[in-house]
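Predict the 3D structure for this chain.
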Amino acid sequence: MVKRKNYQLTLRVMGPLHIGSGKIYTQKEYIYENGFYYFPDMGSLYKEIRKQGDGLTSTFEEFLMQNRNGNHIKPRLIQFLNDQKISTRDFDGYRIKEHGFELEKKKTAKGNLNEISAFVKDPYGYPYIPGSSLKGAIRTILVNEYFHTDNIPWGPKAEADDIFHNIHVSDSEPISLEQLILAQKWDFSPEKLTARSLPIHRESLKPMTAVHFTVTAVGDRAIQLIDQLPQFAKKYYQKYTNKFLVDFPARFIQTYFWSPIYLGAGSGFWTKTDITKADNSRYKKRGKMSMKGKGVLKLTKAPMVKYRLNGKSRQLIENSENLYEMGKCVFSLKEGEK
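Done. Predicted structure below.
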């Protein structure tokens, strides 16, 4: 009988983490008001407007069609509702509380975000992390520290030796909507030694969010790999540090606890590649997809978060700019029920 071993993997978010659903909200699909970003269910909003007659329905449909030619003036849902004297905000959906770092101060009016990338959500509207996202991050660690090559069987077309077929990662448990914040993209250049904001905003899990998964290893080899995963993760992080993080000021590099891992969009090229073999990869090539040097450090901003470890008070960042590493997490692994 083939051996199986279950593990409970707990992920702790250290820097805001975004797993995209592919949905992009424009200013016609959210409302900034009273310190919250409100994302109404557009179907519920449309039904409510239809109740008020054909005239308002036509006006709303015209509003939705505005700016399709890329005009500089972008229509905003809050302005439409105010113009039509619609004061209710009970259109289902959800709200994300403002934290004050969504925009670079003194550059843009509060709440004026052009587009927002949505976090993936389950059929009930709750954020979650797909097992495939975590499994991809685990694969990157094992490629670097066990296989030492990216040329390994993977996916449905692989042969019988597909070791990853014997490593099963569940989707995470649902996550509270209160754990979402809006995170702006910041890039830190090692040449200019400055961080610059970009007009890219993502729904992200806030720092110190806990996310829970079940991992199942089938067969002796898979069990051996997952048993050693925390140690492999630390070795991979040291390789990543030596290759990339060492080029940046220490105040922007978050000190980890448990075992480090990077997930999601915006964490950077070096967190998703076979570092040893990367000399012939994208960062060495020219053209649209090339990088200058080894690239920039991917950051974002969020409020300062403190926590306690071994009885001592600590904080997640050591800089006064409120800059976090995008997608940086840690994990712990415990044997689960058999």
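The longest helix spans residues 131-147.
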